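Shipment paperwork, digital attachment
Item: protein structure file
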Amino acid sequence: QVQLVESGGGLVQVGGSLRLSCAASERTFSSYAMGWFRQAPGKEREFVAAVINWNGGLTAYTDSVKGRFTISRDNAKNTVYLQMNSLKPEDTAVYYCAAREKFGLEYRTLRYYDYWGQGTQVTVSS
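Attachment content:
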């Protein structure tokens, strides 16, 4: 069982930045696809970003965060990051880290992932 622990959420003003971290307990972390999802009140959980190869060279983003968010991984620390810049009120949500044991193509879907973190709240105030 892989444990995922998110951190770095908080309250930030419009235009500000936050960096989320997700630490994994798995020693073979580099073979895992990692994703970030978010869920706003009253809405379904949605895909934000994913890193889908071992060295972080292959990434994907939902259109609304392209150019503002960057996902990266540090295999030596078993950690994936989500750098969020130019934050907007519509980015307010609980952000979840997710992991899958093998790389594949359906990384934008919830069912693709095997493990989930507990979530961290991001609030962008105007």
